[in-house]
Amino acid sequence: MTENSAITMYFKKIGKLPLLTKEEEHDLAVRAKAGDAKARETLIERNLKLVIPVAKRYMKAAPFADLIQEGSRAIVRAVDKFDPDAGTKFSTYATPWINQRIGRYVKKHCRNVFVPEHHVNLAIQINKVKRAFAQKGLADPSEEDIVGGLAEMFKVETDAKTVRETLEFCQTETSLFAKVGDDDTEFGELLKDENAEDPAAGIEREIVNAKLVSALRGLTDQEKTILELRYGIAGRKAAVSDEALAEKFATMPAEIKKARRAALAALERPSEKNRSAAA
């Protein structure tokens, strides 16, 4: 069976399944949470349609069948974590899981832009410089502007010719600048940048290290663990990403980021307990 025929069969199968009503969804979710394997299977099967629109946005980055498979695994994970009494529709809850799983798969397995590695890394940095200019109101910076931005943001010394060549290299069918999501994510952002550190992460790390000794005592255990792992502090050997922390705590990266920022805010505005400990 070819990939196309398998996908066609997949579409036909899930296309015949009627949508769940709100009451049916809640009933299945409650039963699945209680251990009913049949209800769990039905809830998964009846929500597989959620995978298709997300997978279509990434079709140029990876084989469609692989994207469908990863998205289906995300549905399974979402069903197992879903709280039917939280007041959230399952589709609303599951879609971020699907986006995260498929996006991570593309990032890990699909570096299929066939250009030299140094051009890939430079193109990622150029893209960040262009976004910085766009935030300042300059939507189309010149090559000379980009050269200056690279020097300022990443301490990268280059010239207009190299910038032009890099942009030409990367304007392939699977472009680094192709949109692959509804939030204007670009394919180049899914490729790991080996050289550049997120400037915001560096600033946050300085804040954490400056107040570490006394301030951590005033945080919850989870907040302390998140900061220690995220920034490689308090004896931790290496920093880990928000995505890795999300897996550890069985939640979404957005929730980890929210908790991390709340913890950092607490460090900036120490409680009475913190001030007493620091005295």
Structure commentary:
This protein has 279 residues and is mostly helical. Helices cover 64% and strands 0% of the residues. The chain has 15 helices and no strands. The chain has helices at residues 3-15, 22-33, 37-45, 51-57, 64-81, 90-109, 117-135, 143-154, 160-170, 199-210, 212-215, 221-231, 242-248, 253-268, 272-278.
Topology, element by element:
Layout: H1 3-15, H2 22-33, H3 37-45, H4 51-57, H5 64-81, H6 90-109, H7 117-135, H8 143-154, H9 160-170, H10 199-210, H11 212-215, H12 221-231, H13 242-248, H14 253-268, H15 272-278
Helix pairs in contact: 2-3, 4-5, 5-6, 7-8, 7-9, 8-9, 12-14, 13-14
Structural class: mainly alpha
The major sheet is characterized as:
none
- Average pLDDT taken over every residue: 75
Q: Kindly estimate the percentage of residues that lie in beta strands according to DSSP.
A: under 5%
- Return the CATH class of the largest domain: Mainly Alpha
Helix content: 55-70%
Q: How many discrete structural domains?
A: 3
The succession of helices and strands, N to C, reads HHHHHHHHHHHHHHH
Measured distance between first and last alpha carbons: 72 Å
Which oligomeric form is depicted? single chain
The number of helical runs is 15
Give the overall shape, derived from the CA principal axes.
flat
Q: Outline the low-pLDDT stretches.
A: 172-176, 190-200, 272-279
CATH architecture of the largest domain: Up-down Bundle
**Cα radius of gyration in angstroms:** 23 Å
CATH topological fold name of the largest domain: Four Helix Bundle (Hemerythrin (Met), subunit A)
Please tally the β strands and state the result: 0
